[in-house]
Amino acid sequence: MTPFRTMRSAEAFRVSLAAPDDFEGWRDTARRLIQADVPPDRIVWDSPADQSTDLFAQGERRLPAPPADAPQPRASRDFLQYAKSAILHSDSKRFSLLYRLLWRLQTNPRLMDDRADADVRGIDELARQVRRDIHKMRAFVRFRVIEEPDGERYVAWFEPGHHILRSNAAFFVRRFTTMRWSILTPQGSMHWDGETLQEGPPATRADAPSGDPVEALWRKYYTSIFNPARLKVGAMLKEMPRKYWKNLPEASLIPEMIAGAQAREAGMVEAGAQDFGVLPDTLAGIAEAVQSCRRCDIGCNGTNSVMGEGADAPVLMIVGEQPGDNEEELGHPFVGPAGQLLRAHLKDAAIAIEQAYVTNAVKHFKFTLRGKRRLHQNPTAKEIDVCRWWLDGERALVRPRIVLALGASAARGLLGRTVSVQKERGVPLPLDDGSELWITTHPSYLLRLQDHGRADEEQKFANDLRCVAARVSELSH
Amino acid sequence: MSQPALPTQKTILERLEILADAAKYDASCASSGTSKRNSKGGKGIGSTEGMGICHAYAPDGRCISLLKILLTNQCVFDCHYCINRKSSNTRRARFTPQEVVDLTLSFYRRNYIEGLFLSSGIIKSSSHTMEQLIEVARILREEHDFRGYIHLKTIPEADPELVARAGLYADRVSINVELPTVAGLTRLAPDKSATQIEGAMTSLKDSIIEAKDARKRFRHAPKFAPAGQSTQMIVGADAATDADIVGRASTLYGNFGLRRVYYSAFSPIPDASAVLPLKRPPLMREHRLYQSDWLMRFYGYAPHEVQQAAGADGMLPLDIDPKLAWALQFRADFPVDVNRAPRERLLRVPGLGVRAVNALIVARRQRRLRLEDVGKLTVSVAKVRPFIIAEDWRPVLLTDRADLQNLIAPKKAEQLELFAS
After folding, report:
1. In a domain, B298, yes or no
2. Which residue in chain B is spatially nearest to A247 when comparing CA positions?
3. Cβ-based contacts of A229 with chain B (< 8 Å)
4. Which parts of B41-122 are beta strand (E)?
5. Is some CB atom of chain B closer than 8 A to the CB atom of A212?
């Protein structure tokens, strides 16, 4: 190629491209210059939007005509791919970098494979930043709806970092084909009417609508989907840098969300705090600790707790729901009307209550005041779960081989799930310590029934107790 | 028990707050990997282009790509780790299918989202709930010709025929295995059954394979969940070790052809069940599990090799990544010659990612690579150096030094995380 280099070699050429993203213009010119053997340092490139270009740069605007027999310049496919992206970059040196690479490709066709080469890394970096900007525009454009005489139009204001508006418009056409939309940027605007895409002049933020009613919903969604227990501000900033925030309706909420996050997490941990510490290793110790337990609302209602009681090392443990009015006053479990009924049935089934350990799933009395009367209220699942800590403690010390749960609350206190008593009664369930659990109804349920219903249920209750009695006597010997 | 009263009084805004809040414990927000579509020639809007788009990021660092909500947070199940469990006293709300459709479309038109990720608490019955979820997808696809992304959480206990219908409308379907061990599931999700979950995952897999096969022969055969199925495991709510979790994940990938297994570090929830641990596991643990997941999916590590990176207690180290941990344990496999070694050996070098390895392989066809060249293609040459041989570099004794970890492991930022938890 050397013969041409002697020709007016001292002179620099000046190329003005039609637009900052004018890839075709750059390619055609570069092709001619390569054919005319003009080395990279003899060319000054500029385009309308590149303000950093030296306006007073001298240079010959008439480009040399390539010789008629000059060969076609060579460019690998991946170079062209990189070049199409890199040319959209805002860096004014992009044209000359691309030309330098093209120049070097003529003698080293596989140059693009050398990823450690400075120019190759340069174009790679430009292309990468442009791709990211394109991706971020697709992500962060926010349309606001306006009413026009012939229907709705969705308008967005966006400030891209590079000259990507034109090349990115096709994405929005593909996605929002049936909508009418406009994207306004400082570099120009794009308008879609459902059929054709039109370019418009640069715009300002004031040209775009200032709000949209749906943004209130979006902002609410943004704050609600955020999990304050896993704050990772750095990860957010990496993908959503501050420069984008001013055009994102949700971003103004961020500082407040971060500030509140730690407090919210601490609050949740504290509200759920069941930092029970170490379980007392005697039943008396548990009884004392239960008396001062305030970990749920029932514990805070000012009543006395009622601890379980019964034989040492019994085979059978009987678990009810919670102490009632009488139990709370007297301080012993199962001494009220339901207790009387239970004792009668136990006697019929030949189970000696004094040889069993009797307790409740919940240790305090939950009630509502109706005049002077304290009316029993069911404990919630949460309250049962909280009190399970004590029941587990009792079981670990008493070590019964059979546990009889009276009613669904008692069953939950032992299993940790809500069961249907009618479905699960009559067959033993294994508990995690190897003992077996029998579930039946609570005697107070029997007390509420009338006539035939009550007779039927009492019969079933008696049957359940007989099964338990049989197991107790088996295991007692 | 009587049916809970329907919360008819709450506004859309209030219900969105409740039902988005209730949905945030699902880690996935992916909208990638589905078939390419656009709205040209259609009556509606929407497109998917392979790569998903994150339209916003919350301060928890998570991507917001989809409108991720529950249809209702009322639930007849009582899973201890879940804020929506029956026994939780959280506020309850519910959307109608049409309301979800309207919300999705108005968000999509403003370019807030890529589509919808819909899940639900179980109301009435599993099949009834599943029908409601499908109805949302049906209205979007059939009545609005919506071509954006739809991810439906399917309910394993629902009629298999319904689960199959979900795949016809959705890009992705998922069923959460919830906990890595059966013991954990029994203890913390007493209403769920591992057998049922796996059965439903198998039938999804079969439908996906069948539909792919049909499309090879009939171009217009209906697509079935083109973005495949995924699942999620909660980390740190039960006693499962990292080795357990890695083993479980690889079985899931193998048996059910999953696209992704998501790990969600258990995080404290309001009104927590008494059975749960109070504090969350370090978020770093979740991160290390994702890294090990990548090692299996993209770096050619077998599950037992990732498990080797874990300590005697079955836990992956929190202070260094599993790839480095593995390399430190198997130093005899290093150094690796960047100018000669096959791809799979280069992928084992700590600090060399898939991108860097590809670039090295292309570049070394040109010329012999020096340490400086490697440095230009990686983030930290100091981390890579002990494990490689280059034209002008041999680590000599460096690879075998006992204090190697201290020389190359990250110093501060990540370890803070350990104390934060």
Report:
1. no
2. B56
3. 267-268, 280
4. 56-57, 63-64, 66-70, 115-119
5. yes
d(CA A471, CA B385): 70
What average pLDDT values come out for chain B (421 residues) when binned by 10 residues? 55 95 84 86 90 93 94 89 83 95 97 96 92 96 96 89 90 89 84 86 87 82 86 87 91 88 81 67 88 92 91 90 92 92 94 92 90 88 89 81 75 42 32
Chain A residues closer than 8 Å to B38 by CB: 174-175, 177
Q: What is the ipTM of this complex?
A: 0.87
Structure tokens at A476: 């007692």
With a CB-CB cutoff of 8 Å, which residues 350-369 of chain A face chain B?
Answer: none
Residues B223 and B326 in one domain: no
Last residue of a domain, one of B178, B193, B228: B228
Please answer yes or no on whether B12 and A265 come within 8 Å at the CB atom. no
Residue A241's Cβ-count burial label (10 Å; 0-12, 13-18, 19+) is exposed
From the list A174, A268, A417, the residue facing B78 with the nearest CB is: A417
Query: Which chain A residues are Cβ-neighbours of B90 within 8 angstroms?
Result: none
For residue B55, the chain A residues in CB contact (below 8 A) are 139-140
Homologous superfamily, domain A283-476? Uracil-DNA glycosylase-like domain (3.40.470.10)
Q: Is there a domain that residue B200 lies in? A: yes
Print the domain residue range for B378: 322-420
Strand duo A43-46 + A144-148: pairing:
unpaired
Same domain, B214 and B332: no
**Considering CB atoms only, which of B17, B106, B265 is closest to A220?**
B17
- pLDDT for residue A270: 63
The verdict on residue B279 lying in a domain is no
Examine the domain organization and report whether B165 and B50 are in the same domain. yes
pLDDT in tens, A144-180: 999 999 899 999 999 999 999 999 999 999 999 999 9
Residue B20 is nearest to which of A116, A177, A224, comparing CB atoms? A224
Indicate whether B253 belongs to any domain. no
Contact A416 B190 (CB under 8 A): yes
Structural domain tally of chain B? 2
SS3 readout for chain B: CCCCCCCCCCCHHHHHHHHHHCCCCCCCCCCCCCCCECCCCCCCCCCECCCCCCCEECCCCCEECEEEEECECCCCCCCCCCCCCCCCCCCCCECCHHHHHHHHHHHHHCCCCCEEEEECCCCCCHHHHHHHHHHHHHHHHHHCCCCCEEEEECCCCCCHHHHHHHHHHCCEEECCCECCCHHHHHHHCCCCCHHHHHHHHHHHHHHHHHHHHHHHHCCCCCCCCCCCEEEEEEECCCCCCHHHHHHHHHHHHHHHCCCEEEEEECCCCCCCCCCCCCCCCCHHHHHHHHHHHHHHHHCCCCHHHHHHHCCCCCCCCCCCCHHHHHHHHCHHHCCEECCCCCHHHHCCCCCCCHHHHHHHHHHCCCCCCCHHHHHHHCCCHHHHHHHEEECCECCCCHHHCCCHHHHHCCCCHHHHHHHHC
Are B33 and B160 part of one and the same domain?
Answer: yes
Q: Do B366 and A113 touch (CB under 8 A)?
A: yes
Domain boundary among the residues B198, B228, B258 is at: B228
Domain boundaries, chain A: 2-135, 141-207, 215-271, 283-476
Residues B77 and B182 in one domain: yes
A292 confidence band (pLDDT: 50, 70, 90): confident
Please report the pLDDT score of residue A231 as a whole number.
84
Are A225 and B112 in contact (CB < 8 Å)?
no
Residue A340 pLDDT grade (very low, low, confident, very high; cuts 50, 70, 90): very high
CB nearest B24 (choices: A179, A227, A388): A227
pLDDT band at A227 (very low <50, low <70, confident <90, very high): confident
